[in-house]
Design goal:
The radius of gyration is 16 Å and the shape is elongated. The mean pLDDT is 95. The protein contains no helices and nine strands. Helix content is 0%, strand content 57%. Strands 1-2-3-6 form a four-stranded antiparallel beta sheet, with no helix packed on it. The protein has a three-stranded antiparallel beta sheet with strand order 7-8-9, with no helix packed on it. A two-stranded antiparallel sheet has the order 4-5. Strand 2 and strand 3 (25-32) form a beta hairpin. With 99 residues, the chain is mainly β.
Amino acid sequence: KSTIWGVRHLPQNRDVYMTLGGNGSICLWKYNYPKERTKTASNGDDMGLAGTVEQVQNVVLGTQPISGFDWSPDKEGLCVCSGFDQTVRVCIVTRLKSL
């Protein structure tokens, strides 16, 4: 568990996103839509329902916070991140089509 320093959605799939951790970690998440998007309240108004979020993967890249992250708009799964440890890392996330 750590402080979230940032969030970036995958450009090719808005339901998948990466969070940047203060402990040097990045976590991949997937949003799952509810079976029904609305329900009727007791007063007759429609009320929106929230879906669920599942953590797909996490990895600790260093000991300092990850402060910058960006997905490639052209190559699904290709990303770059930087941290307070003054490093730039190029990462590849695989199996995104199966999420």
